[in-house]
């Protein structure tokens, strides 16, 4: 833990007052740190810090940073130990009605997108750490001591060999094999398989879990991942880290924000502002979204077949945005992707062949999108109970997918989603071994470790989507026979 200057203190009311007037203070292990000027320089981006503004960030900090960040860099921002002066004893209200109307306290403190969306999340009480939090940190240290945070590079060597075999098949069937429909089908299926398998390694590297060095992981990820996958690792990181910090929050988590196609939570059926996209969705007045969402349980699988195209679009939007730090580099790597794809299909000599390849390779990758969404789409999206711990939140909002060990290659380690959310810096190939420790942890605190088979996970997802679709159908007058205001209906 960080060595603290015992002389420095800040009262709870002062801590809250400073946050309300535009500064950005967080709590780590009972002490306040001022990140006002640092947040813009933060390697993980400013938004993740905004999400913890005025809150207890202890466990999130531990989950995401190497020891030296916490031991050597964090003390630089120390304000002092937080003491409860009795003026206000807890964190700000998590009452959604109250949170929905954030107060702009001074004209010099413009509301951040997080505040506009209803305020930060935060985990655990401010001045003291709960038993769950203490035990989480003990477990974190224990897993570190047992070597689970260390990378087994032989695992990645096997992955590289797998990709080289895939590339050989793609080049042979796409360029040299007889121009036959079977060649195109094999070429497309191998491309889809390679994309699915590479995405798992991309996931590790995006979490800095391969080299445990943010710059090196990013460099290797963008040098190989972008050209072969066509998805910007920079975009993925910016999106995915937010997803981890605010999992399943309708206002904040971009991974569950899919209007006009899907509404993962009935909260999307009202007017909702997204702190990530900075836009407001006015569902009650969006007839296109109503149409799609009212059929979402049936459209889900067909739409997933085209999901990859949306990821290209998101990547391009990110590359054109002002917050892409290495634009030229990332654009160059993405051009490499477009070039090899065009080069490959230019050898097909048939539009049918090209259509088969493009459609099949993209549609088959829907399995990956399904694997990714399954672990959260059927889990709770309500506001967390007040002072909920980081670990409790991870267990509440994530679902493990049961599978035998020999099928681990297929699920790519992402089937251990609960373990991954608790320890995002542990590489996927170690998560099966981590699971028993998490099961014990959950049992010690009376928490559930949610887990379902792949089939039943799909059933749960379908039911959740259908329930929400039916609400739209009813509100739209299809089921009830009369037109009802959807926003009112859901209150
Ligand atoms: C609310 C507080 C904070 C949150 C939620 C947070 C979150 C994150 C996240 C999600 C990442 C991963 C970024 C990536 O994928 O590359 C990250 C990385 C990083 N953060 Fe923070 N952070 C916080 C505060 C801080 C502070 C106070 C410091 C400095 C003292 C800091 C320094 C860093 C560094 C150096 C990295 C790169 C780590 C690496 O090499 O793997 N962060 N942070």
Automatic annotation (TrEMBL):
Pfam families: Cyt-b5, FA_desaturase. It is a multi-pass membrane protein. Pathway: Lipid metabolism. Belongs to the fatty acid desaturase type 1 family. Residues 93-113 are annotated as: Disordered. The keyword Lipid metabolism applies. This is Fatty acid/sphingolipid desaturase. The chain crosses the membrane at residues 299-316. GO terms for cellular component: membrane. It comes from Gonapodya prolifera (strain JEL478).
